[in-house]
Amino acid sequence: MTRALTRKGEATRARIVAGAAAEIRERGVDEVRLEDVMAHTGASKGQLFHYFPDGKEELLLAVAQHEADQVLLDQEPMLSNLTSWPAWLAWRDRLIERYRAQGVKCPLNGLLGQTGRRAPGAQAIVTGLMWRWQNAIADGVRHMQSTGDISADVDADRAAAALLAGIQGGVLLLLSTGKTDHLEAALDLTIDSLRASSRTA
Amino acid sequence: MTRALTRKGEATRARIVAGAAAEIRERGVDEVRLEDVMAHTGASKGQLFHYFPDGKEELLLAVAQHEADQVLLDQEPMLSNLTSWPAWLAWRDRLIERYRAQGVKCPLNGLLGQTGRRAPGAQAIVTGLMWRWQNAIADGVRHMQSTGDISADVDADRAAAALLAGIQGGVLLLLSTGKTDHLEAALDLTIDSLRASSRTA
DNA sequence: ACAAAATTGGACCTGCAAGTCCAAAACCCG
DNA sequence: CGGGTTTTGGACTTGCAGGTCCAATTTTGT
After folding, report:
1. In 3-state terms, what secondary structure has residue A195?
2. Chain A: residue whose CA lies nearest to B125
3. In Å, what is the separation between the CA of B61 and the C1' of D11?
């Protein structure tokens, strides 16, 4: 049913999604009109509705998925290799560097509020992203526990949840303050408290 | 210049802001039309533009301010009295209870994304809220340091920044998951790490 | 090469929500 | 009471962005 895209079709579709994503990152979801996407990607209105029959909502959903995947990809290979304290720090540095460069342009900020409430699918995308993210962190915590670098008393999932919350909040605060201070503080203090756990226990 | 509101005028204006705020909390910023506000508050279009000459944007700004003030008020008197561990826990419980009840209806969620990018004023409102919030927490940390319940080695502002980030992230995750798990984990682990600081130091 | 199917361009339609305008009513104050 | 001002109601205008439609063109498969 959905199998009707030629090579060229796939390419066009991908170009539209990527272009729309860039446009949204740059100017915010609710500032981007279909016409902007057309201008920016060189696509016609016919193309837009050919590849996204349900219009803007469907396009936004595709963009959300695209951006969600990117968020985790940008943390690799560090995120999947949290096997030593230097590795944790490398991941920490990558995160901060990445968000510092990105500044106010958070890809998912608007997508949560904008599509999140109305589109049930967008909610699922964000939830899925957070779930994968938290699991990757929890895996890292468990690995450190296996090597004795983190106390076995620590609840890995709970610690990962707290760390993820700190990251999300840090990014949110970056959006309004323009500074990465909160992100850094949350990461550093939470990670430090994990390190301390092995010494006190 | 702005001084031209009779008693009745003030009342009407306040009624519009409160009604619009409720409406937005309930259904999200971008789902609320001026007509919805009119219906919900019993105000006419003439009134809306009489009290908010710059239209929707100005109204949204007033709503944002109203909601921002409310966020801190809802944490009182706990937030201003973080002078003992039981007091911290009471504050923690109040926060969780409040957000659990509120669920997905975060007053400022959309206001950040929606007006945040375009209206420079909304940005300022949110920043101001975060600043006041963080300061209140930092004051609590400093008080606990003065009584020796928290190690003097702790950087109060940095700790407050991390805690605030955890809260914001926890709320954000509440919005997409519907669970308060992250908020609880972030609060508990961060506060526990502050408690631990006095014992290890 | 040719028919069927996918792709593309762009003119056109439509609905809606913000914003305008003005005249009627209520209100304030000497 | 009476003139000026604020407050109120609601009809009307306007612009625009999403969505529709279809005909022209290219691609695909045999």
Report:
1. helix
2. A176
3. 28
Q: How far apart are CA A34 and CA A38, in angstroms?
A: 6
C-alpha angle A120/A121/A126, rounded to 5°? 105
Where would I find the H helices in B28-177?
34-41, 45-51, 56-73, 85-102, 109-118, 120-146, 156-177
CA–CA gap between residue A36 and residue A64 (Å, rounded): 18
CB B96 under 7 Å to nucleic chain C: no
Please answer whether residues A41 and A35 qualify as being in contact, where contact means their C-beta atoms are separated by less than 8 angstroms: no
**What pTM did the predictor assign?**
0.93
Indicate the residue of A109, A158, A166 with minimum beta-carbon distance to B166. A166
Question: Where do the H-state alpha helices sit in A74-155?
Answer: 85-102, 109-118, 120-146
Q: Judge contact between B108 and B126, C-beta under 8 A.
A: yes
Q: Which two tokens stand for residue B22?
A: 């409720």
User: Do A172 and B167 count as a contact with CB atoms less than 8 A apart?
Assistant: no
Rounded to whole angstroms, the distance from the CA of residue B50 to the C1' of nucleotide C21 is 12
Number of neighbours of residue B127 by Cβ within 10 angstroms: 16
Which residues on A lie below 8 Å from B196 (Cβ)?
193, 196, 200
Q: Are B23 and B81 in contact (CB under 8 A)?
A: no
DSSP letter (8 states) at residue B32: -
B174 contact A CB<8A: no
- Whether A119 has its CB under 8 Å from any CB of chain B: the answer is no
Distance of CA B1 to the CA centre of its chain: 30
Tell whether A80 lies on the interface with B, counting CB pairs under 8 A.
Answer: no
What number of other Cβ atoms are within 10 A of residue B5's Cβ?
12
CB atoms A168 and B164 under 8 Å: no
CA angle A129, A25, B167 (to 5 degrees): 50
Q: Match 């809306």 to its residue by tokens.
A: B48
Q: pLDDT truncated to tens, each residue of chain A (201 aa)?
A: 445 788 888 999 999 999 999 999 988 888 999 999 999 999 999 999 999 999 999 999 999 999 999 999 999 999 999 999 999 999 999 999 999 998 777 777 666 655 555 678 888 999 999 999 999 999 999 999 999 999 999 999 999 999 999 999 999 999 889 999 999 999 999 999 999 988 765
- Please provide the DSSP assignment of B177-200 as one string: H--SHHHHHHHHHHHHHHHHHHHH
